[in-house]
Amino acid sequence: MSFRRITALLLRYLLLYRQSWTRIMEIFFWPVMDLLVWGFLTAYLLQVGSSRVPTLITFLIGSMIFWDLLYRAQQSVTISFLEDVWARNLLNIFVAPVTIGEFLTATFALGVIKVLINGLVLAALAWLLYAFDIFQLGFTLIPFVLSLMLMGWAMGMVTVALIMRWGHAAEALAWGIPFLVQPLSAVFYPVSVLPVWLQPIAWALPSTYVFEGMRQVLATGHAPWHMFWWSFGLNLVYLIASGFFFHHIFALVRRKGLLAKLGME
Amino acid sequence: MVIEVHDLVKQFNGTTAVDRLSFTAQRGEILGLLGPNGAGKTTAIQMLLGIIEPTAGNIRVFGQDIATHRQAILQRLNFSSAYVSLPQNLPVIDNLRVFAGIYGVANWREKAMELLRLFEIDRFATRKTGQLSSGESTRLHLCKALLNDPELLLLDEPTASLDPDIADKVRKLLRRIQRERGITVLYTSHNMREIEEICDRVIFLHHGRKMAEGPPKEVIAQFNQQSLEQVFIRIVRDGELEVTKDNNHG
User: Fold this and answer.
1) What strands, in cross-sheet order, belong to the sheet with B64-65?
2) Helix (H, G, I), strand (E, B), or coil: what is residue B8?
3) What is the pLDDT of residue B246?
4) SS3 (DSSP) at A229
5) pLDDT of A181-221, one tens digit each?
6) DSSP class per residue in A173-223
7) Alpha helices in chain A, H assignment, sequence order
8) A264: chain B residues, CB-CB within 8 Å
9) What residues in A contact B52, CB-CB < 8 Å?
């Protein structure tokens, strides 16, 4: 692992943002749109009136922000890879002395930067528009966000591996895979809402513990640390498994010549 | 010896793209890999770069096995291809900055500007790469390929998209740099005149097999032809006959 090569790759992705306002806007556009839709929906529910509605508001807005952080972490890995595919720059990167670990680490670092910027902007907007203070979660917020990032990276590695294997036809997975896990992650509702047979699958996802944990913090003011540790432990398992999967697919695409093909198409 | 390829085979789903290919390249030599589309030139180069894994055989570059010393080998070589681009939305200088970082080039700005001046595109340093013409873009790729002072340069049809005037300038410049720095070059092209002009030695490939090898003049004499282009046509047509015969007997 070379820190110099990782920062050079990270620079390659960051420089793109310096060159394009549309890319910068893309970081904020969807999260802000989501925040507005969900925020105003919850404001409407508040007008309709119910004793539980204020709690619901905080649940929905918190869930929306957390979901977006997970999504951005996954996207930082997949879109960075696709940027090089689209630019036909992939071979330039992979015939340079860059290891797969360095390439992935650079995309993870980009994810940290994006998640930080995104999280701060969304938190500020939620506070301004809906008087929702995400920092009421205190320092418990940080490990939960970290856990979501780890899951985003694991999903990102699996997505990139599938794109390497199946080429341009699989590009849509970059946006689709997070939404495969969303219904099962109990993002906007508790696991108890799911059919009983789906609940074990939901509890097998690290993200479920984060969203359930966040709701518990908001409802009771106490951090359910066991939820965090379950999430963190599962994430380690998923990261290791996705690392092996990535490694296996990378070896396969080298044997089949698919990386070279993807880089020159 | 800079490159040593021994009995290299690559099969994709039962189709043989490279068939028991063996060759060497010495320090400071320009070796041309020739052949029609699908002859196995690009596959051979990609195996040398370690992005395609051979089915059989072995490749040693700078005396090291590419299978086990890929990172160390890649640090000392570079690559340019007409079929690969640099990010179009980044300024020229930023693209060179990123690759200078990857290769660990000290004083990257001075090095990048020196190369841009050498290829007469320094006035475009701050221009977006996508705004360059094909000729300027090819020269930029060569700047990237020379950033790390490579000892071995793999050029896959580097002049494919250039007009004859620019192609001639690029060839002359490449030849000059190669002589001054003693770089070994592996060069593929469909332009036989270009190959005759620039290469010290050529290898003809057809259906992944080596059909002829030697200095261009010797290969031309060996086939009783007037030019490499005629040799190319003869090898391709005779090669087709040979393959048809092989298939009929098989």
Assistant:
1) B15-25, B3-12, B56-61, B64-65
2) strand
3) 52
4) helix
5) 888 888 888 888 888 998 999 999 999 999 998 888 877 87
6) HHHHHHHHHTTTTTSSS-GGGS-GGGHHHHHTSHHHHHHHHHHHHHHHS--
7) 3-19, 21-48, 53-86, 90-94, 100-130, 141-166, 173-181, 199-203, 206-220, 225-256, 258-264
8) 81, 83-84
9) 254-255, 257, 259-260
Nearest to B84 among A19, A88, A257 (CB): A88
Nearest CB to A259; choose among B51, B81, B101 = B51
What pLDDT is stored for residue B217 in this prediction? 92
Q: How confident is the model at residue A51 (pLDDT cuts 50, 70, 90)?
A: low
- Give the percent of chain A with pLDDT over 90: 36
Q: How far apart are CA B142 and CA B92, in angstroms?
A: 12
Tokens of residue B234, six digits: 């003869």
| Distance set, CA B140 to CA B165, B200, B215 (Å) | 17, 25, 30
B89 touches chain A (CB under 8 A): yes
Q: Report d(CA B222, CA A49) in Å as an integer.
A: 94
B79 touches chain A (CB under 8 A): yes
Name residues whose C-beta falls within 8 Å of residue A252's C-beta, 6 or more positions apart in sequence.
A165, A258
Specify burial of residue A245 (Cβ count, 10 A radius: 0-12, 13-18, 19+). middle
State the Cα–Cα distance between residues B180 and B223, nearest whole angstrom: 33
> Between chains, do B102 and A98 touch, taking CB under 8 Å as contact?
yes
Chain B residues closer than 8 Å to A5 by CB: 101-102, 104
What residue type is assigned to position A28 of the chain? F
Amino acid at A57: I
Contacts A15 to B, Cβ<8 Å? 90, 94, 97-98
Q: Mind listing the pLDDT tens digit for each residue in A101-149?
A: 999 999 999 888 888 888 888 888 878 887 777 776 666 778 888 899 9
Burial class (CB in 10 A: 0-12, 13-18, 19+), B228: buried
Residue type, B128: K
Q: How far is CA B147 from the centre of its chain?
A: 16
Cβ-Cβ contacts under 8 Å between A and B: the total is: 101
Length of chain A equals 265
Across chain B, which has 250 residues, the per-10-residue mean pLDDT values are: 95 91 94 90 93 94 94 95 90 96 94 94 94 91 95 90 83 89 91 88 92 91 88 79 49
| Chain A residues 80-99 with a CB less than 8 Å from chain B | 83-84, 87-89, 91-99
Chain B's closest residue to A94, CA to CA, is B51
